[in-house]
Amino acid sequence: MNKSSSLRVENPARTGAAARLANLVVSALPWMIIAGLLYAGLFIKPKAVGGSVTPPALERRDRVYGIAHAADGALLAAASNGKILAIGADRKVARAATPGSLSLQDIAAFDGAHAVAVGNDNVILVTEDGGKHWRQVDNVPRSQVANKLNRVRAGANGVAVAVGEMGALLRSQDYGKTWQRLREEEDVAWNDVAILDGGVLVVVGEFGKILRSSDGGKSWEKEQPPVQSSLMGLAFRDTANGVAVGLEGVVLTTGDGGRSWTSVKVPAHEHLLDVAWNADRNEWFATGAMGRWVSGTSGADGLQWKAGVLGEHALSWHTRVLAAGRGYWLAGADLGSWDGRQWTPLASN
Asked: Which UniProt keywords apply (predicted)?
């Protein structure tokens, strides 16, 4: 039987066309994949699975360098990375929108509406609505060498004074909107300033340097300090009596408005970085490194000084102390309150 009639004979032309089509598809496949990826990247938006995670206003990594009273028992705090925090009377924390990310070194409030914050690279921020909105000040006097503002103090009638690196000593008379230099640039860092009645200004800085002006900064006198250690913080309880603190546990007192100073021996050697007067407790209170605090109260033999630490496990540094009733708020490596017996860190929320 002849079976050749049952055999299928392929058409050579058809076989060649199929091969060419297959080769075309294979060669085009990488471009099709690339086109698909481009389309997905441009036009297909991924949908979030679950809720987005919002970081807390106060994070563990934050360093809070300044703190001030605000309206209705609230506080304002200046922190690293340009953060300004509003702390309610209920201890809840909210972050205000700020126009930059430069670390802020200090903050001061004039009243319930006006406040000013200063920091790295001569940044100055102001608010006119109690801290809800902040704007950066333009045309702040600068040095060609270094620019960092360490401290700002607010006085009456919109007057503020800021101090910092390279002899920065700046004054504003319009709630921080504009600033003028009070002294020429010099190779010294000023760390704190007190604004007293009658146009008196007292400034302290590194290497124990102290300046005093009795005419609002038009002229200056260099006072003779009894120490060479850098002075970091300064406070007055009236126009005559004040305390300055500094590195290596230095404590100085004055009873004549900053003209002369006396060194006080205190039972502490850690760096002291800030001091405040608490009228409710009738005491001076200083804070600094390693959770150290020092307090001075009036006694029969004058000021009696004692020292302690916040707690066995509360050994952080604090650059600012703020009297609040019979207690204090401390700001630095962490933020919290001290009632004289117990340290209560502010929780992130």
From this structure: Membrane, Photosynthesis, Photosystem II, Transmembrane, Transmembrane helix
CB-based contacts of 134, cutoff 8 Å, min separation 6:
84, 96, 97, 98, 99, 117, 125, 126, 127
Q: What is d(CA 233, CA 77) in angstroms, rounded to the nearest whole number?
A: 18
pLDDT in tens, 135-190: 999 999 999 999 999 999 999 999 999 999 999 999 999 999 999 999 999 999 99
- Total structural domains within the chain: 1
Q: Nearest Cα to 204, choosing from 191, 221, 222?
A: 191
What are the residues facing 174 on neighbouring strands? none
CA-nearest of 62, 63, 69, 64 to 328 is: 69
pLDDT digit string (tens) for 86-140? 999 999 999 999 999 999 999 999 999 999 999 999 999 999 999 999 999 999 9
Residue 122 belongs to some domain of the structure: yes
> What domain range includes position 150?
62-187
Question: How far from each other are the two terminal CA atoms of the chain, in whole angstroms?
Answer: 95
